[in-house]
């Protein structure tokens, strides 16, 4: 069982123990997910790419970003579960579609 496979039953149990299932509708979870993405963006909003790279090496920004990334992931996993979607399978299918839409760049024959 992969780490992601373990998240689904753990999140189900977590929500059930708190009687949150009635609130975990696709709409509510999508809104919560959007809010958490906004919180992740807010951590990086006024920093340059260089500052972000430097501050992600350790310290407070890394901890805050890690917390927000975890929140985004947890809401996404819960959303997919409630919607009956296999998150890994859907991600692989999307990559497959993107491989057809965006073929690899071919080497420049004149170079």
TrEMBL record:
Entry-linked Gene3D superfamilies: MazG-like
GO molecular function terms noted in the UniProt entry: nucleoside triphosphate diphosphatase activity
GO biological process: nucleoside triphosphate catabolic process
Keyword entries, A-Z: Hydrolase
InterPro entries for the chain: DCTPP (IPR025984)
Name of the protein in question: NTP pyrophosphatase (Non-canonical NTP hydrolase)
Species this protein is from: Crossiella cryophila
